Each structure stands twice: as structure tokens, then as C-alpha cells.
Amino acid sequence: MIRLNVLTLLEERNRSKYWLWKGLGMGYDSYNRMITNQTKSVSYKNIEAMCIKLEVTPNELFEFNFDEEPTE
Length: 72
Fold this sequence. Notes:
The protein is mainly alpha-helical. It contains five helices and two strands; from the N terminus they run E-H-H-H-H-H-E. It is globular and about 30 Å long.
């Protein structure tokens, strides 16, 4: 299963969820669902913005777990 690794990246950089949310300029409910992996899709615009804010590549932004089943 592919998941966003945002919470770990924020912790490693001593940044808050609020800091990233303000930098992305999106609604909080959508943002919270996205970073807690409760959404089925993430736009390229948001992927790019998170990569820029967190100074990471898309490879670092996502993680893949072979042991987890995909959610419907």
C-alpha cells in the first residue's frame, strides 16, 4: 500500500502539522485527511507543494508497504 510519509517528515524536521497546512493553503479537513492517509487521491499540485515545503523528493514523501492491503 502506498502512503504519505508526511507526519514522519514533519517530526524529523521539528515542524508542526499547522506549519505545513498554512504553507499549502488548503482547507484543514482536506489537509488532515490527506496527511493521515484517509483519502484516495492526492493532486500533483499538493505533492509538489509538500515536496517544496519539506525539501524532499516524491520518493521521500511516499512509502510503500508490501504487507498492508489497499483500502477501498
